Structure formats: structure tokens, C-alpha cells
């Protein structure tokens, strides 16, 4: 007796919840045989704005967590992903990726999460300094997260592009709203399920599916977004984003040349891109002396 | 006068008003073997000498298990295994090496309670400390260092960091598992292989760690654990095929090691004794400072190389600090380390208790004024009341020498110059504490104190991301943080 499979309804991920888009719109995702695999949410400006609210309210809690705790949570995400490896491979196959490439994409994604888990409590040691100022002050500079980061992630990759863009942002204590690949969106939503079972607080990562041509101007003009990362190659979108960013002096990073499966796609400098440097001056008394003696 | 009387009246009587029901930690879930062998090349093997020694619970004097005594031949076997393992281990990518170390961290977190209970049974420290400090910190050290394994190029740019080879590590009995983690984790992250010797009175958690390492699938020979006393340690120090010695223990033994390897190319790091000054200024938050002083000296029965064993109090607040300190000491619960209420557990060994009692005698003879908490202590096992010596002076032996027990000397000072002079006037330089409301004073003192760690308005804080180690005769090299990797790399 044949059994009819249960198909998953792909939703979006906002504030730890899985709603469909408020707009009610969808776009059909088709396989090579032109069959519909899923009706993806065509997210709207309103969805994006809701996601920014969720990301902003999660920012305080996430950025104040100890670096070590963030490290444990990123590692937990890797653990969860490892356990669901087969599901992601199957989903990549469904989206037309070859078996070998699918396997590589998933294992690289897991290892990249572990890589950034390690950085959570270490990039500070690289990017901080104690500054030997001439006056009698103890002067030090430390990195702090920028805030809410909007990400338009790679169009070519379903999972690795997403992980590559999210991991350094949250490792550094930011929260984010991510637009997934439009043509390969499935893993983004399944990855949201991984995030949702990894002790990651609601709202730290929010994921939308939809169309960059429609959304990039909203991503870049929102006044409560502090930084924008763009992983695609569309020159017109890049120009609009850079222009709109000036509205509230967003930091913009265009990663149009990144090669996702290369070692160069991961480094602490991707964390640094979403950090502010804070310098503190504190007076030092200068009484007594004992240095020479002992 | 009448005011003073009221205070005395209001004082709690801790024997009648403040009774605690016992809250023993369960040890039923612990499985210990009767006899433990040496962990060499991924398996437990019998010692060449066939000799075993007993390990005791210092709180009950009961024998817990027997532990193998490694001789030169066993150590040689362990070094050979480590050397062989080094070939492959050092060539493994940092990413894969890191994953093994993450696994060890996770396994330790999963088995944390078991490790805590055994640590307390074998070493005498209170279950609260082994459960909340020793074991989680040990796991965190593995977790933290795991992340460095594939990031060494960022930590030390332009130097192409390479491991040293086989590392011999000798650790003390005061934080048996934690010290093993401090030693093994950075060594592995840097790509070295290890021969580690735990202290003879506290081998069990290191051997449990060996089991865990075996379960983790770490390649055979990458970590070898050999048990024994001084002779076994000497065999490690003197083995010709070891590239580096890392030692934590007494300054006397540290000097001996430094001398013994002087004719070789072995690298060395030493984390030795201390006699930290804990300094309270008149502007400090006094209650907070008193808490910090209690934590500074009575944490882990005072068996802490960085213990705040010399209290310096500014003269104008000396009376109130000492009164509050005595009151606080009265509330400390000394006794069964397995009881979750216990503050101060058992002294680690009979020898150590004798040494502490000897120093208490010396302090009295030197003319310092002794004060001890009036608490009851168990009739069996090794216990020592929390002890103060008031009016101690800089030349007293109890001020100059490390006691390694719950004994605090108290000196007063008038000026900041005076206290800097006194704090530094000692061969040690591991740590110091400063209590003041004024930040600029803190930084003045961190500049002037010749010590590797300065705690300001806190004490005895440890973190895998924070370097730890001494100045002067407290040793050299750092453990923890980025600096903690340096001694394990050719840079």
C-alpha cells in the first residue's frame, strides 16, 4: 500500500515564531521538472519591519550574554545541524544540488558554525588594545556589537550562504534579519527550526523568504537597522542600498565577491565588520613607588 | 558604651539561632574501581613495578581506591607513546584537532556531577566548590582552547606557530581536575601531545578524565596519564625526549625542576607558590571587602597558590574590619565536604594538616595574636578551623612563607606608599587584591604591585579567557587566554 507523504508548509521565522507572511502572498518554488515543490512566503515590507522589532528587542539580552555563553549556543547550533544533516542534504537535492555538493555544503556549514563558536570569546583579544597614552590614564579600547544587522544573503546557496552571513554577526553579539535565497529558500526555513531548538533566544535571528528587488530598499532605509550586509551582485541594488544607508549612517558591507566554500569566507574580520570600538579613559593615581626595589 | 552593648546583644548566636539541616550530596551514582592503572597509549596498563598506593578520603580517612605507581620505565613508555602520536596529531588540521577538544569539553559537561563528587571525595574540598567552580571551569578551559586550535595564525600572526612536541605536565593536589584541564587543553590546541602526572593524593579525577578521553575517540597516545609521587615526576622532568615541562606546585620543587633541566633544551613554565596581599583601604565598601577577604583566604581551605593570605587594612578602619571579619568567620561551616552547606571542607592530607598546625604554632611563638572561629570540627578526618593572626609583622615567618591553609595574617598600614612597600616585600608575586571605592587608586596599585594577577574589589576569579601566572618566585609563563597558548608553541 502506498503512503502519501506529508509535505511541509514553509513559513518565515520572526521573533522565535513561524508565521506565514502577513501579506498573504506566495511564490511557487519549482524543481527542474517544473513541478511545484513549495509555496514560499513572499515576505513584505511589513514582515521586515516586524522582524526588525523582534531583532531590536532581542539585542539587549543577546549582546549582554557572556561571550562564553554565546560560544556555547553557537556550538549547540552546530550540534543540532549535525544531527539533521540528512534532512538538509535531501532538501538540497530537492533544490537541484548534486549529491556531492550537497554533502559538502552541509558539512562546511556545520564546521563554519563551530569555527565561529570558537571566536565568540576570542575576537575581543585580537581587536582590543590597551593604549599607552602619555597622560596618567588607563586607556583601553574594546569591540562592542553594532546592533541590528539586516542581511541580504547569497542567492546561489541555500544553507552555506545563510550560515556564512549569520554566524559572524551573532558571534559578535548582534541580532539580525536575513533575506534568504529566493531561488533556493528551503534550507533557510529548516535552519530556522535548528536555531529554534538551540537555546538561541527568540528574535536573535529572523529569516524571511522573498524578493530582493522588492525588499532591498526597505532593508536599507529602515531607521532602526544599524548595519547592512549584501551578498549578491546586483549593481543597481548595491547603489540603492549605499544611498539609503546614509539616512541613518548604516554601516554597509558588500560581499559580492565572496566564495562561500573557501576558507577565505570565514575570518574574525567578518565579526569585526559589525563591531564598534569603544575607548574608555580612566585616571590613574600616581602615589608611592616600589618598582625598583623588588 | 551603651550603643556597643546593644550591638553585642543583637548579635546572632550561630550555634542556636542558625542551625542548618544536613544536606548531603548523593554519591550513590558514582562508580569507582578498586584499582586504577596507568593510562598510556589509549589504554589502562599495569605499572612495571606492579606497585599501587592507596588514595584516601581526607574527610573520613577511608581508603577510596588504589592507584598505580609509575616508575621510569612506565614514564618512558608514556613518552614513547606520546612521541609516536605526535607525528599524526601535529599534522591533523587545526579544525579537526579542535573538534576533539570540543568533544572532551562536552563529555565533561555531561558527566559534571560525577566528577564533582569524586573530586570532593578524593580531595576534601566542599562539594559546592567542586560542583560550581572546579568542574565547570575545567570543562570551560577545554571548550575555550578548542576554539583556538584552528585560529593560531590569528593569535600569533607572521610566526607560523608550530607545536613543541611531547609535553610533560605535573600538577598539584589543590585543584586536581582543573589543573589537568589548564595544562592539557592549551597543549592539545597547540598540537602537542601530553604526559601528565596528577598529584599522588588526588589522582582519581585525572584517571576519570583518562576514561573520558578514551571515550572521546582522541587518538591513542595524544594524552597519557601516569600516576605516582615525586619520583614519577622526576622521571618526567628528566626524560630526554620531552620538549617542555609545565609544572604547578611549590616554589621549592619548581626551583629543583628549573635546575634539573638546565643542561637541556627543554622549555619550562612554572606556576608556583604565592603569598598574596589583600589590601583594604578606608574608602572601601567594608562588608563587600570582608566577604572578599573570607573568599580570598578560606576558599578551598586556603589551598590556593593565589590565596589572599596577607590582609592589609588601613588603620582607620582596622577595628571595624576585624570585628566584621571575626563575625563572618563564626558563620563559616567547617565539616563534611559532601554537605552542600559546608564552606570549608577537609584539609587535603595529614601531611598538609601537620604543616598548617606547625605554622599556627610558629605564629603564636612569633608573638602574633591568634583568633580562631569557635566552630565545631569533625573528630575524624583532617580539619582546621579558620584562623586569623592579628598584629602580625612583616618579618614573621607566617607573613613571609606560604602556609597553604585557612590561615590569614593581618597587618595594618597608614599610607599607600607603606602598603605597596609591604605588599611587594616578599619573594612571591602571584596575585594581589585591592579594595577601594576609587578607581584611580586601583590602577595605581595594579601598576605598582609586582604580581601577575590583581583583583580589584573581587577575589579568586578565574576564567579560561584570562591569563594567570606569577612574577618573581611565583614562577613564569601564563595559563589561560591567548597568552596561555604561547608556552606551547614555537613562535
Determine the CATH topology of chain A. Answer: Aldehyde Dehydrogenase, Chain A, domain 1
Query: Assembly type of the shown chains?
Result: heterodimer
**Helix vs. strand class of chain A:** alpha/beta
- Beta content of chain A comes to 15-25%
Number of H/I helices of chain A: 10
Low-confidence stretches of chain A: none
Q: Please give the most extensive interface between any two protein chains, plus how many residues each contributes.
A: A-B, 31 and 39 residues
Could you name the ranges of chain B where pLDDT drops below 50 across 5 or more consecutive residues? 1-7
Q: At the third CATH level, what is the topology name of the largest domain in chain B?
A: Aldehyde Dehydrogenase, Chain A, domain 1
As a whole number of angstroms, the C-alpha radius of gyration of chain B is: 23 Å
Looking across the biggest beta sheet of chain A, what order are the strands in? 7-6-5-8-9
Euclidean distance between termini CA atoms of chain B = 68 Å
Assigned CATH class of chain A = Alpha Beta
CATH superfamily of the largest domain in chain B: Aldehyde Dehydrogenase, Chain A, domain 1
Distance between the termini of chain A: 88 Å
Q: Rounded to an integer, what's the Rg of chain A over CA atoms?
A: 21 Å
CATH architecture classification name of the largest domain in chain B: 3-Layer(aba) Sandwich
Shape of chain A: globular
Number of strands of chain A: 10
Amino acid at each position: 500500500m502506498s503512503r502519501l507523504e506529508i509535505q511541509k508548509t514553509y513559513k518565515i521565522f520572526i521573533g522565535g515564531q513561524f508565521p506565514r507572511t502577513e501579506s498573504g502572498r506566495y511564490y511557487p518554488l519549482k524543481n527542474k521538472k517544473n513541478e511545484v515543490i513549495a509555496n514560499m512566503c513572499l515576505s513584505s515590507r511589513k514582515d521586515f519591519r516586524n522582524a526588525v522589532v523582534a531583532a531590536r528587542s532581542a539585542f539587549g539580552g543577546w549582546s549582554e550574554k557572556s561571550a562564553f555563553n554565546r560560544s556555547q549556543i553557537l556550538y549547540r547550533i552546530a550540534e543540532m545541524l549535525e544531527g539533521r544533516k540528512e534532512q538538509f542534504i535531501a532538501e538540497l537535492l530537492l533544490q537541484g544540488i548534486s549529491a556531492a555538493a550537497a554533502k559538502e555544503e552541509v558539512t562546511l556549514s556545520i564546521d563554519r558554525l563551530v569555527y565561529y563558536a570558537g571566536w565568540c570569546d576570542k575576537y575581543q583579544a585580537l581587536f582590543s588594545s590597551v593604549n599607552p597614552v602619555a597622560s596618567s590614564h588607563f586607556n583601553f579600547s574594546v569591540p562592542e556589537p553594532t546592533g541590528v544587522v539586516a542581511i541580504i544573503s547569497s542567492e546561489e546557496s541555500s544553507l552555506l550562504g545563510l550560515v556564512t552571513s549569520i554566524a559572524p554577526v551573532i558571534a559578535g553579539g548582534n541580532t539580525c534579519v536575513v533575506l534568504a535565497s529566493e531561488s533556493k529558500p528551503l534550507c533557510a526555513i529548516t535552519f530556522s527550526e535548528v536555531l529554534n531548538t538551540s537555546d538561541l533566544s527568540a528574535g536573535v535571528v529572523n529569516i524571511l523568504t522573498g524578493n530582493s528587488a522588492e525588499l532591498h530598499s526597505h532593508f536599507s532605509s529602515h531607521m532602526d537597522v544599524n548595519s547592512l550586509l549584501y551578498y549578491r551582485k546586483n549593481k543597481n541594488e548595491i547603489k540603492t542600498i549605499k544611498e539609503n544607508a546614509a539616512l541613518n549612517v548604516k554601516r554597509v558591507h558588500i560581499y559580492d565577491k565572496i566564495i562561500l566554500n573557501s576558507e577565505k569566507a570565514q575570518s574574525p574580520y567578518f565579526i569585526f565588520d559589525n563591531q564598534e570600538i569603544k575607548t574608555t579613559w580612566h585616571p590613574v593615581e600616581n602615589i608611592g613607588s616600589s618598582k625598583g626595589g623588588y | 558604651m551603651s550603643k556597643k552593648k546593644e550591638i553585642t546583644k543583637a548579635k546572632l548566636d550561630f550555634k542556636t539561632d542558625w542551625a542548618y539541616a544536613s544536606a548531603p550530596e548523593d554519591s550513590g551514582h558514582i562508580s569507582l574501581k578498586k584499582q586504577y592503572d596507568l593510562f598510556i597509549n589509549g589504554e589502562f596498563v599495569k605499572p612495571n613495578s606492579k606497585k599501587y598506593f592507596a588514595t584516601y578520603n581526607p574527610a573520613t580517612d577511608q581508603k577510596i581506591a588504589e592507584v598505580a605507581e609509575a616508575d621510569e620505565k612506565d614514564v618512558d613508555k608514556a613518552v614513547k607513546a606520546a612521541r609516536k602520536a605526535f607525528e599524526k596529531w601535529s599534522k591533523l588540521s587545526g579544525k579537526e584537532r579542535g573538534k576533539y577538544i570540543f568533544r572532551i569539553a562536552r563529555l565533561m559537561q555531561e558527566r559534571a556531577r560525577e566528577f564533582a563528587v569524586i573530586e570532593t571525595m578524593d580531595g576534601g574540598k566542599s562539594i559546592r566548590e567542586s560542583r560550581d567552580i572546579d568542574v565547570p571551569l575545567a570543562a570551560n578551559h577545554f571548550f575555550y582552547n578548542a576554539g583556538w586550535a584552528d585560529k593560531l595564525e590569528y593569535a600569533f600572526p607572521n610566526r607560523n606557530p608550530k607545536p613543541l612536541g611531547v609535553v610533560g605536565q605535573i600538577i598539584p593536589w589543590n585543584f586536581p581536575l582543573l589543573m589537568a584541564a589548564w595544562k592539557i587543553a592549551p597543549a592539545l590546541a597547540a598540537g602537542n601531545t601530553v604526559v601528565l602526572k596528577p598529584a599522588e593524593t588526588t589522582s582519581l579525577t585525572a584517571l576519570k578524565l583518562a576514561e573520558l578521553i578514551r571515550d572521546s575517540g582522541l587518538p591513542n597516545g595524544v594524552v597519557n596519564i601516569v600516576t605516582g609521587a615525586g619520583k614519577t615526576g622526576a622521571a618526567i622532568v628528566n626524560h630526554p625526549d620531552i620538549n617542555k615541562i609545565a609544572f604547578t606546585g611549590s616554589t621549592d620543587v619548581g626551583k629543583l625542576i628549573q635546575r634539573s633541566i638546565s643542561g637541556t633544551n627543554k622549555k619550562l613554565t612554572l606556576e608556583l607558590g604565592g603569598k598574596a596581599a589583600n589590601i583594604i583601604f578606608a574608602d572601601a565598601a567594608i562588608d563587600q571587602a570582608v566577604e572578599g577577604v573570607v573568599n580570598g583566604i578560606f576558599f578551598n581551605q586556603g589551598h590556593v597558590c593565589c590565596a589572599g593570605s596577607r590582609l592589609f587594612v588601613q588603620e582607620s578602619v582596622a577595628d571595624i574590619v576585624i570585628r566584621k571579619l571575626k563575625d563572618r568567620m563564626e558563620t563559616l561551616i567547617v565539616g563534611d565536604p559532601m554537605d552542600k552547606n559546608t564552606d570549608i571542607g577537609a584539609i587535603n592530607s595529614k601531611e598538609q594538616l601537620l604543616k598548617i598546625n606547625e605554622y599556627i604554632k610558629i605564629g603564636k611563638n612569633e608573638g602574633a595574636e591568634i583568633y580562631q572561629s569557635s566552630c565545631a570540627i569533625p573528630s575524624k578526618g583532617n580539619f582546621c578551623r579558620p584562623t586569623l593572626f592579628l598584629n602580625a609583622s612583616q618579618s614573621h615567618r607566617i607573613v613571609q612563607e606560604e602556609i597553604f591553609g585557612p590561615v590569614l595574617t593581618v597587618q595594618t598600614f597608614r599610607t599607600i606608599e607603606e602598603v605597596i612597600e609591604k605588599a611587594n616585600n616578599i619573594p612571591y608575586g602571584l596575585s594581589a587584591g585591592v579594595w577601594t571605592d576609587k578607581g584611580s587608586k586601583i590602577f595605581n596599585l595594579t601598576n605598582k604591585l609586582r604580581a601577575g594577577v590583581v583583583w580589584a574589589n573581587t577575589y579568586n576569579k578565574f576564567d579560561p579567557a584570562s591569563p594567570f601566572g606569577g612574577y618573581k618566585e611565583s614562577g613564569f609563563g601564563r595559563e589561560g587566554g591567548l597568552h596561555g597558548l604561547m608556552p606551547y608553541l614555537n613562535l
